[in-house]
UniProtKB/TrEMBL annotation:
The lineage of its organism: Bacteria, Pseudomonadati, Pseudomonadota, Alphaproteobacteria, Rhodobacterales. It comes from the Bacteria. It comes from Pseudorhodobacter antarcticus. Residues 22-222 form the Metallo-beta-lactamase domain. One of its GO terms (molecular function) is 3'-tRNA processing endoribonuclease activity. This is Ribonuclease BN, tRNA processing enzyme. InterPro entries: AtsA-like_MBL-fold (IPR044094), Metallo-B-lactamas (IPR001279), RibonucZ/Hydroxyglut_hydro (IPR036866).
Length: 281
């Protein structure tokens, strides 16, 4: 297994459109570990398509509780369980992740009980440990994971995550432009950073009919591509990958448009994320 990041879903926001990208989920494979970062709808299919055996599900990190990062967490674990998962899964998430998981188990109580009684499975709840994390070191050891609180109003518990093993990979999570993220990501081989293209925002406003409220949220809570370049440049990352694209499904906007913005502030290697994109480490 070569060390890699696979982007499973690359659009920002929860809405789906025909032919468009899926919302945020990623797979990091490093030093023989498999880590799922965020679990939007589509994560389960995305992992299978990326070649992962769901019975090997082990570590999951959720950056924050917006639905485009957590909606399919329960269904992913449940599907791994019905695929034959027998080993423990640990879910690291911000405060509230424990309530999400308890609610999911409650919603599936009928099916879970039947599968234990009828199919002899280990109770699903017994396989899963939920760990609520905050800023700082989340996991220590050969795989070291640390979290930085990032500004993503009105969400308070939103985090960037840095994974250190043979390589270093940092995910920005959802964040407004946040210069301290450059220090946090310093020396990363790969920085996966969310990005917004101002030219495409007005088209989204028109399409959703949500007006000023959505416009204000987008600019207060996300990072323009030109500012993403500033972070990558200051951090000295090996490679920048744009993710959580807003907009993600505007035919008028091409990868060249995104990269032109980034190139104003970042001199290194940059790529625009697409669903299924594999980045070798
Ligand atoms: Zn999001
Ligand atoms: Zn968000």
């Amino acid at each position: 297994m070569s060390d890699r990041v696979v982007l499973l879903g690359t659009k920002g926001g929860p809405a789906l459109r025909a032919g468009g990208a899926m919302p945020t989920a990623s797979l990091l494979e490093m030093d023989g570990r498999r880590v799922v970062v965020d679990c939007a709808i589509g994560v389960t299919k995305g992992l299978v398509e990326a070649g992962m055996d769901l019975r090997a599900l082990d570590l999951i990190f959720i950056t924050h509780l917006h639905s485009d990062h957590v909606l399919e967490l329960g269904p992913l674990i449940h599907t791994a369980w019905t695929t034959g998962l027998k080993t423990p899964v640990t879910v690291y998430g911000p405060p509230g992740i424990d309530a999400y998981w308890a609610g999911f188990l409650a919603s599936m109580a009928y099916d879970n009980a039947i599968r234990v009684a009828d199919e002899g499975r280990v109770p699903l709840g017994d396989l899963v440990q939920v760990v609520v994390y905050g800023e700082g070191v989340v996991l220590d050891g050969p795989l070291r994971v640390s979290a930085l609180r990032v500004p993503h109003p009105p969400v308070v518990d939103a985090f960037a995550l840095r994974f250190e093993g043979a390589r270093v990979v940092t995910f920005s999570g959802d964040t407004a432009y946040f210069p301290p993220l450059a220090e946090f990501a310093r020396g990363s081989d790969v920085l996966v950073h969310e990005a917004l293209l101002p030219a495409g925002v007005e088209a989204i406003i028109a399409k959703t009919g949500l007006g000023d409220k959505l416009r204000n949220h987008l600019f207060a809570s996300h990072t323009k591509a030109v500012d993403v370049g500033r972070i990558a440049q200051a951090a000295g990352v090996g490679r920048l990958v744009l993710n959580h694209l807003v907009p993600a499904d505007d035919a008028e906007i091409t990868a060249a448009d995104w990269l032109a913005e980034v190139a104003q502030t970042f001199a290194g290697d940059a790529a625009v994320g697409t669903d299924g994109m594999e980045i070798l480490l």
